[in-house]
Amino acid sequence: MASRLRSAAAAHAEGGVPQPFAVEVPARPVDRLGRLVGPERFEAMRATARAALGALGDATLWNISSTAHGGGVAEMLGLLLGYAKGIGVDARWMVIQGDAEFFAITKRVHNRLHGVAGDDGDLGAREAGHYRVVLDANTAALDAAGIRAGDVVFLHDPQTAGLAGHLRARGARLAWRCHIGSDTANERTAQGWAFLAPHLAECRTFVFSHAAFVPPQLAESDVWIIEPSIDPFSDKNRRLTEVRVQALLAQVGLLEGERDPAMDAVVGGAAPFAACDPLVVQVSRWDRLKDMGGVMQGFAEHVAGRGEARLALVGPAVAAVSDDPEGARVLDECVSDWEALPALARDRIRLVTLPMDDTVRNALMVNAAQRHATVVVQKSLAEGFGLTVTEAMWKARPVVASAVGGIVDQVPGGTGVLLRDPADLAVFGETLTGLLADPSRMRSLGRRARRHVREHFLSDRHLRDYSRLIEHMARL
Questions:
Q1: Are the C-beta atoms of residues 79 and 28 closer than 8 Å to each other?
Q2: What is the CA radius of gyration of the chain?
């Protein structure tokens, strides 16, 4: 799929001007959700979907984002739009294009909304001007795609907010969907919100993953809190046999077994682990806020050598994530730090960059890594909603995660272990070694975690929430 997307993007580029392109999403059958969640929940979802369809009439539902793969937003859109089409919604997805400077600016805004400096660059008049120019260059193709007055449009995250004025002038009913934020406000969050303010003023409805992320200036607006979900039938979450799990991880070189040189993803040619080794896994993008380097340092200093556990830091091949210009630098830093570790720690830690050219295979490899893990970690410094946390919980894995952002809602008491201060590496190490030494507790946490996800974070709940919102927007 990824190669088709790149071809589509290239086909839309005219004279170097960035042009958005459509992502084709196949319809997904919803009936199998009913078999998993039961008739009462399934009928509640169907009822809200029927109401939304009635309110939409002949209007189209559009989603506009900045990438078609390589992150949680793209992953959720592909799944949710598939189910929406499966219940009869005319649902479409467009991906904007931009140059390197545009994505550097939007990454800067992303970091500021999380309350951190990032590259500490400016967000002044020049940056605002370039942001507008790039998004203005995307509008002609969006118009040509057929967005009409009365259509419902979701703009996802800072990269697309600048389209709001143009789409509002065309008569679209707009919602800005923010997947990120900070629990606390500071000077940096104020800078990020100030940059977006002129564009958000054009939106009528706002959707956040976590109530604490809503800035004061939007507190009296039409704000909805909708937590993300996972699809239990996706390639990333469906059941895999242990034989299949080990074969997939052997192919990429993480575990012993039949290695596929074309799929080798372990950095530095390090030797594979034995399948029987206890394995701690963090899966995330190579983003400073995910703190892959901190996980490695904490494991090296406080876990390695105190037991038999190994660590795998698993992320995407950075060239495939077009809207994150910092990924390559963060990976390079992690590689340098790994190479500088003492021999014992280096021997017990692997950095894995999974190829993204085949999205199905990539999802299966992530699925396999989480299922094989003894413990799954998400030691983020900030987090909108940690999909990898919910994915691991669904697989009944014990989770150690930071008590930040949406993760707090995802992991209530008894379903995992939360770190009050993710920067405290000694506590992180003690927590991890204590959990690894207690198999009974790990099993108990895993069972409770799976039940919690089934009750709160599967696709039927997400579809129900969005159906209510779409009905609301269609009647405005």
A1: yes
A2: 22
